[in-house]
Amino acid sequence: MTQLRHDWQIKEVLALFKMPFNDLLFESHTIHRQNFDPNKVQVSSLLSIKTGACPEDCAYCSQSARHDSGLKREKLMRVEQVKNAAKKAKELGSERFCMGAAWRNPTDKSLDIVIDMIKEVKTLGMESCATLGMLTYKQAKRLKNAGLDYYNHNIDTSKEHYKNVISTREFQDRLDTIEHVQNAGINVCSGGILGLGESVEDRASMLQTLANMAKHPNSVPINLLVPVQGTPFANMEKPSDIDFIRTVAIARILMPQSVVRLSAGRTDMSDAMQAICFFAGANSVFYGDELLTTPNVVQTKDEDLFRGLGINMR
Ligand code: SAM
Ligand code: DTB
Ligand code: SF4
């Protein structure tokens, strides 16, 4: 077991970004082995329970009402539909079902419906996760009482770069919701996106914020931007594979016991790239043919990849 730290200095994190690649990967993989079975990967499935027409202006997102991505808006799904999707995900081998809604925050009335969805997912014997935007402490407590296991709320990027990505809320709003979720006793899933035009300093600062939280997020998704036509970030430059892998490795070093998820963007990654991410310390993926509004790696392709790498799903 590696000693957990919550006092990372930016200089130390930047020094990790400057390490020779092989030294960095040796260190991150060593820490990975001390804390996890290196041949196990956790799998979660995603479902967009309420799609599009979001009042927020996140520059990367297909679901913002302010961008013309051509996405068809959909009302909140019925509980029965969600239950059927979760059943299917379970049959395909997923252990966690994550429900996403294009909201700035849920109303108490819509939360009633999401609570019924969570109860159905729990009845199937699956872990439940939701990502619904900002929450008050009271709302987080209601979700906890309904049996919610995880709440996903990404900080997305560094506090310095945040205003260049989203103008309709502040970085601190994200931290406040994460604190409410943590205080309510729900496991936190929080990470970010690479490819938003951020600098190495921004990547270091983002990971520093996550690692210096009072408690490390239980799960840390590292997304590669999925470029969506019609959004302001449709034509961003893609980070190099090496820079992406470095970030995964450093997430593993800073948060040794957190599950690091190789999240959105895997359709743009080669098998070798994903294999190195798993070596560097990633041990979770989104499984199933769709993310929220964009395609994911098809399931049969993931099965082949895992078989080839001798990786078991857990
Ligand atoms: N509306 C809620 C919120 O933003 O908190 C929940 C859903 S939102 C789609 C969940 C997360 O998905 C975002 O915080 C972002 O990190 C990620 N995301 C959205 N669009 C993405 C894209 N095009 N590429 C990569 N990640 C994306
Ligand atoms: C996370 O970190 N990534 C997921 C999940 N948490 C909610 C969402 C990825 C969305 C990718 C773009 C889309 O499909 O709309
Ligand atoms: Fe809305 Fe979430 Fe998309 Fe931002 S990331 S526009 S809050 S759905």
Could you characterize the architecture of this molecule?
The structure is a single chain. This protein has 314 residues and is an alpha/beta fold. The protein has one domain (10-308): TIM Barrel (Alpha-Beta Barrel), CATH 3.20.20. The chain has ten helices and ten strands. Strands 1, 2, 3, 4, 5, 6, 7, 8, 9 and 10 form a ten-stranded parallel sheet that branches. Helix 5 (137-145) crosses helix 6 (171-183) and helix 8 runs parallel beside helix 9. The structure holds S-adenosylmethionine, 6-(5-methyl-2-OXO-imidazolidin-4-yl)-hexanoic acid and iron/sulfur cluster. The site of 6-(5-methyl-2-OXO-imidazolidin-4-yl)-hexanoic acid has 16 residues, from strand 7.
Offer a quick outline of the entry.
The protein is α/β, with parallel strands linked by helices. Helices cover 39% and strands 15% of the residues. Strands 1, 2, 3, 4, 5, 6, 7, 8, 9 and 10 form a ten-stranded parallel β-sheet that branches.
Number of domains in the coordinates? 1
Bound ions, cofactors and other small molecules, one mention each: S-adenosylmethionine, 6-(5-methyl-2-OXO-imidazolidin-4-yl)-hexanoic acid, iron/sulfur cluster
Structural class: alpha/beta
| CATH class value | Alpha Beta
Shape: globular
CATH architecture: Alpha-Beta Barrel
The CATH topology corresponds to TIM Barrel
Give the helix level as a range of percent: 25-40%
Q: What structural keywords apply?
A:
10 strands; 314 residues; 39% helix; globular; 15% strand; binds S-adenosylmethionine; TIM Barrel; binds 6-(5-methyl-2-OXO-imidazolidin-4-yl)-hexanoic acid; binds iron/sulfur cluster; alpha/beta; 10 helices
